[in-house]
Amino acid sequence: MAATAVTAAAAAPATGAGTDGASSVHWFRKGLRLHDNPALLAAVRGARCVRCVYILDPWFAASSSVGINRWRFLLQSLEDLDTSLRKLNSRLFVVRGQPADVFPRLFKEWGVTRLTFEYDSEPFGKERDAAIMKMAKEAGVEVVTENSHTLYDLDRIIELNGQKPPLTYKRFQAIISRMELPRKPVGSVTSQQMERCPAEIQENHDETYGVPSLEELGFPTEGLGPAVWQGGETEALARLDKHLERKKKKTLVDGHSNSSSNSSYHSAWVANYERPRMNANSLLASPTGLSPYLRFGCLSCRLFYYRLWDLYKKVKRNSTPPLSLFGQLLWREFFYTAATNNPRFDRMEGNPICIQIPWDRNPEALAKWAEGKTGFPWIDAIMTQLRQEGWIHHLARHAVACFLTRGDLWVSWESGVRVFDELLLDADFSVNAGSWMWLSCSAFFQQFFHCYCPVGFGRRTDPSGDYIRRYLPKLKGFPSRYIYEPWNAPESIQKAAKCIIGVDYPRPIVNHAETSRLNIERMKQIYQQLSRYRGLCLLASVPSCVEDLSNPVAEPSSSQMGGTSSAGPRPLPSGPASPKRKLEAAEEPPGEELSKRARVAELPAPELPSRDV
Fold first, then answer.
1. Binding site, residues?
2. What is the pTM for the complete model shown?
3. Which residue positions hold the site described Electron transfer via tryptophanyl radical (predicted)?
C-alpha cells in the first residue's frame, strides 16, 4: 500500500472550488485527530462541503466483548474530536449502523462525490475497506486513502524482504534502515479551510448525530470509577509534551551529575529513554503514558517520531538518532508488518507462523486468572488493575501472559488475547496477538526456559508490596515479608491481617516450582519434535529439568522498553497443525542461549515492545 492511494470513480467528480467542488465525507475510524491527518486534508482540498463521519454500530457495542473502559475511552475521544471540530465551525456526525448499510444511504442523501479515510493495514480493515471502495465506485464516488497510522509502508517492507514479512526484529531493522525516513507529519486542518467547505448542521444534530453515552450503548455505569485515562486528541498532545519534557529533565539531572560533557549528556539521554529505571511507581498509570492514544490514533505516530527526533538533535547536535531510540514505535511497526497479510494472526489454526502447541482446555483456571483469583498476589493485583483501569505496565503484561501460558496454567495464548482485547485500552489486532505469541513461545521467541516467577519477579520490582496493597486491599495487613506469598504466613499473622488464606483469599492455583518444571519439559519436547522435522538438533544442550530456583539471576541487558537489543529476537520455528508441513527456518541458528542452564525463579525473558510508551 503506497503512502497515498487514490481510486477514481467510474465517473470522475468535479474537484474545483466553490459550488462546483466535491461533496466530501471523511470517515474517521482510528486516526481520531485533526493533526497529521492527510486523509482529512484530502477531503477538504477543493471541496464545497465536508462532513466528518464516525460510524458506530449500537448492536455491536452491546454484543461485543470489548469492555467498558475501552468504550468510555472511545466515546471521550469522539467527544473531544467533536469539540475540536466545533471550533472550526463544523461538527462530527456519529452515524448509527454498519458501514455497508450506512454509506449507500449517505451517498444519496448528501450527494457525496468523494470519500476519504485513513488506510487500515489490518486484515479485517482491508477486507471491509475493499467492500466500501467497490460500493463507492459503483455509486460514482471518488475514494482517497492515506497512510498515517504506521510510520512505514508495510507492503514495501514485505516487498524488500522477498514478498514475506520479516519475522525477526533484527531483520526488520535491516529492512527499514534501507528505506527512506518516515514521512513528516502534515499540519492540522485550519478554520479557514473548513469555512470554505461548510457542512449543513441541523438544529437536532445532537439527537441525530451526537456522540452517544455509555448508557445509550447498554453499559451499566453504576459503580464505575473515574477514568484513569482520559480519551481524546487534546489529552494526547498534552501528554506528549509532558512525556518529552520529563525525558529532557531527567537527562539534565543524570547527564550533568555524571559529567558536563556533551557526550555524557547524550549518553544519559539515550540511556534514560531506552532503559528507564523500573520501580514500584512504574507499575502505576503515568500521566505521560501514550499507548492508548497511539492505538486509537488520537496521537500521530509520525508526530511522536519527529518530536523525539527533534529533541534528540537538540541534545546531540548534527547526529542522526539511532534506530533503537524509536524502539517503542518500531516494535509496533514490526507486529503490524507481520499481521497485515495474515487474517489468522490472532489464532493458532491456519496461522502459518504459529507453533501448534497442544495447550490444555481449562476454563476454570482461565476464569480465575482473568478475575484475579489465582492465589498469587502479584498476578492477581496486575489483573485487578487491568480490569479497573484498562492498562498495566508492559512487564506486568509479560508476567501474567507467561503465567497463563507456558509458565504455569498451560492455557492457550488465544484466550489471553481475548481477555486483553476486552480489558486493555491499547489492545489492537496486531500488537496484542503478536505479543501473546511471543510470550507463549508460539512465534518470534524460542527461549522457553526463561520463565517469570509469580513471587520473585514482583518482589524484586516492589519489595514493600505497596502495589499489591493498592489493588488487593484484603491483603494490606500482611507484612512485606509475606505479602507475595501469604500462604506461608503463620496463622497468627493471617489472623492479625484479618485475612485467612483459603477463606478470605484463595490458595495458590498451582505449585509454581513443580508446574513450571513440567511445562518447560513439555516445551522442550515440542521443540525437539519440530527440530526433527527440520533436520536440526535445536535443543540438544537444553537441560531436562530446571534448577537454581532459589538464586536470583541478573536480568539481560536488553532494554526494559523493548526492541533495543542490537541482535534482536530470534524467531520460533513456525508451522501449522501438521508438523509435516514446511516450517520456516530461523534466520539465525540457536547460539549459546540454548546451552545455558534453564532457570525459572526470577529470570525474566528478553523484553517485548512496550505499549506503555
1. 273, 328-335, 426-428
2. 0.84
3. 359, 413, 436
